[in-house]
Amino acid sequence: MGVKLEVFRMSLYLTFPVAMFWIANQAEWFEDHVIQRKRELWPPEKEGQRQELEAFKERIRKQREEKLLGAARQNP
């Protein structure tokens, strides 16, 4: 039983990575499953969202600068 078991294990060790490599390199499968799932998890940004984010960043930056400027004026 030992030799047959070792042959089975060795064939499994060689077959599994080759099969996974073959499946992962199928272009249709990649496009259908991986790219679709990526779009579900991270939908494309809308232009309005990007503008809101930039405006928010600018507001935070101005607040931080004003705070630092106020602290600098108090401690000459």
Write structural notes for this entry:
- The chain is mostly helical and 76 residues long.
- Helix content is 87%, strand content 0%.
- It is built from three helices and no strands.
TL;DR?
This protein is mainly α and 76 residues long. 87% of the residues lie in helices and 0% in strands.
Topology:
Blueprint: H1 2-24, H2 27-41, H3 47-74
The ordered H/E elements are: HHH
**Helical residue percent band:** over 70%
Mean pLDDT: 87
* Total domain units: 2
Q: How much of the sequence is in beta strands? A: under 5%
Major β-sheet profile: none
* Rg from Cα: 28 Å
**How many E strands?**
0
Shape: elongated
Provide a count of the helices.
3
Distance between termini?
Answer: 86 Å
Give me the secondary-structure category.
mainly alpha
Q: Can you tell me the residue ranges where pLDDT is under 50 for at least 5 consecutive residues?
A: none
Protein name: Protein PET100 homolog, mitochondrial isoform X2
Give structural attributes.
76 residues; mainly alpha; elongated; Protein PET100 homolog, mitochondrial isoform X2
